[in-house]
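Ops channel
N.P.: pipeline sanity check, posting one input/output pair.
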């Protein structure tokens, strides 16, 4: 179990109005697929980076099975699937994967054996010696997925893994996540495509303006994530008057 406790990071001095996250707390039980949902700028990436120790916190801590996540190599049980802009573009795919394996205590033998299977799964074999910046958006996501899967982590945190993917690749990624969960991998995933989260999540955490506004188990057979989002995230209703003013005389 991962316990996220009272994480606070505000990015300017005005604690009341500054952007960031405030007292973010929620638990991730082993075996869960947590949908972490919020609008642009709500604080999802900041929270995930804070969990991985990549954001300096003003307060809060994260534990794994009751122990500090950031001590005794505990963090190696987790793997982060970052946004494609946050990966080293000049590295070759295989260099990137090997680097992350080495940094997370994976032996060269394990990297070698697993990489053969995972490159085959993700159809990356022909691209492993290409620089990441040369890859299409979809292939970059596959390279990141390879770096995650080869390490066989117990927990995976995915920040918009399906953004920019075509429909077929999205379905493949979701199928991979479902299968990983059957193998006992615990998952936290952010996405703006709520339909795909509806399909796989069994726990929903909503964040709005840096605060958790909803945190509960989710049953996709009886609940609609979009309805919970509308109720708790309080999305602003767009003022359509300017559009009506432009179009009131009819179209060209
Ligand atoms: N290093 C930083 N310096 C200043 N402000 C930051 C920094 N990192 C994040 N923020 C601000 O904190 C808020 C939360 O950003 P974050 O990237 O966590 O949102 P998000 O929910 O992941 O959004 P998106 O869906 O657009 O990716 C935003 O207003 C963002 O501008």
């Amino acid at each position: 179990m991962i316990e996220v406790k009272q994480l606070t990071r505000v990015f300017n001095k005005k604690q009341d109005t500054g952007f960031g996250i405030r007292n973010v707390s929620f638990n991730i039980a082993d075996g869960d697929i947590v949908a972490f949902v919020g609008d642009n700028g709500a604080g999802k990436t900041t929270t995930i980076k804070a969990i991985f120790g990549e954001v300096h916190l003003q307060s809060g801590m994260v534990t794994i099975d009751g122990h500090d996540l950031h001590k005794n190599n505990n963090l190696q049980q987790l793997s982060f699937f970052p946004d494609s802009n946050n990966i080293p573009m000049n590295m070759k795919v295989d260099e990137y994967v090997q680097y992350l394996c080495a940094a997370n205590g994976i032996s060269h033998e394990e990297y070698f054996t697993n990489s053969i299977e995972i490159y085959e799964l993700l159809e990356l074999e022909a691209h492993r010696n290409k620089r990441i910046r040369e890859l299409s958006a979809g292939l970059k996501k596959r390279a990141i997925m390879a770096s995650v899967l080869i390490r066989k982590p117990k927990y995976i945190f995915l920040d918009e893994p399906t953004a920019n993917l075509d429909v077929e690749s999205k379905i493949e990624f979701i199928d991979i996540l479902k299968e990983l969960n059957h193998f006992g991998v615990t998952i936290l995933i952010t996405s703006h495509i709520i339909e795909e989260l509806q399909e796989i999540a069994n726990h929903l955490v909503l964040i709005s303006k840096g605060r958790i506004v909803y945190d509960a188990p989710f049953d996709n057979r009886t609940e609609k994530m979009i309805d919970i989002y509308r109720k708790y995230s309080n999305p602003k209703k767009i003022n359509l008057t300017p559009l009506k003013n432009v179009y009131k005389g009819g179209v060209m």
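N.P.: looks fine end to end. The chain has a mean pLDDT of 93.
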